[in-house]
Amino acid sequence: MISYRLGVDDLADMRFACSPLLETATSLWALAEPSAHLLHLPWIRRTRSLLQDWPAADRELLLALVAPEVQWLPDFITPRPSSPLPEANEELARVRATPPSRAVADVRSAYDGRPLPAALAELCETPRRLRDRIGGLLTAYWELAVQPDWPRMRAVLKADMVHRARLLARDGAAAVLTGLDPSAQWADGELRLRVSSYQLDYDAAVAGRGFWLVPTLFAKHAISPVGADEPPTVAYPARGVGTLWESPRSSAPDALDALIGRPRASLLMALESPASTLELARVRRVSPSAVSQQLATLLANGLVSKARAGQVVLYARTALADQLIGPY
After folding, report:
1. Which CATH code for domain 254-325?
2. Taking residues 180-197, what's their average pLDDT?
3. How far, in Å, are 78, 80, 92, 265, 304 from residue 89 at the CA level?
4. pTM for this structure?
5. Longest Cα pair distance anywhere in the chain, in angstroms?
6. How many CB atoms are located within 10 Å of the residue 62 CB?
7. 186 and 178 Cβ atoms separated by less than 8 Å
8. What is the C-alpha to C-alpha distance for residues 101 and 304, in angstroms, rounded to an integer?
9. In the prediction, which pLDDT does 317 show?
C-alpha cells in the first residue's frame, strides 16, 4: 500500500497526461505474460513475430527489464511526462540522459533484492553502458512495436483523459481519485492505493512537486514509481481498452447525413476518439477555421463536448451523438 498526501494547492495542480514511453515499457508485461492480457492478443502475436528477427540477446535483455514475481520496471524507463501529450523522442532522450549511477540503482530497486539475470548483472558493472544499452533497446522497440499503433493507442488514452476531466469538473477531485482503482481510498487529504504489487509500501507528501495521473493500456491495476522519492505519479487502467484493436467505422449513416448535413456528420465520425481542431483539420484536409465553425455548431447542440489537456483543447462525441450514429 502506498499513500500520497496532497494539500489544497496540490489538488488544484493535479494534471493528466498520456505517455508513449510508459506504454512502450508496460507493454513488456503483455509480451512476458500473454495469458494475463487477452485483449491485446492481436498486438502480442504481431509483436512477437517481429521480435523473432532480433538477436536473442536483445530479446532477453528487453524482457529482463520486467522484474520477475513483482513485475516492477526500473523507474528511469518510465519518467513522469513533462507535458500532457509528450512526444516519444522527448521521453526517450530523457532516458538516454539519465545519470548512469541512477540507471543501475533503478534496475536493482526494481528487482528488490532478487538476483539479476546475467545480462543485466554484467551491464551493471559498467553503468554508462547499461544506460546506453537500455536506451537504445527501448528506442528500437518503440519504433518496431509501439509507434505503428501509437495513433490508435493515443486516441484511447486521450478519450480517458477527456472523461476524467469531465468528471473532475462535475464531481470534484475525490471522485477522480477514488475512480483510479478499486483499492483507492481518499480521506483527510491522503490518497491510499494498493499499487503494482502488495510489496510496494511507502508514504510520500506531494508538497508542491506536482501530481500527475496517467492512463495506461497495459496495467491491470494502478501503478506508481518504485522509489518514494520519484515525482508523484499514478498510472491507472484506461477506459475503453476493449475497443483498441477494433476496426474504426469509416462513413456516417445516410440518416445522420440527412439530419445534420454531410460535413457535420462526417466530422462526428472523425471523432471516433477525442481530437483537437488542428488534428481534425489535418485529417480532413480543410482549414482549422472551417472545422471550428462545424464544432461550434455541434457543441451548441450537445453532440460534442470539449476538455483542455494542457495547451490543447480536445473535442469528443457525447452520448447523444453516439445514439444518433448507432450500431451499424
Report:
1. 1.10.10.10
2. 88
3. 13, 14, 5, 35, 32
4. 0.79
5. 69
6. 20
7. yes
8. 49
9. 84
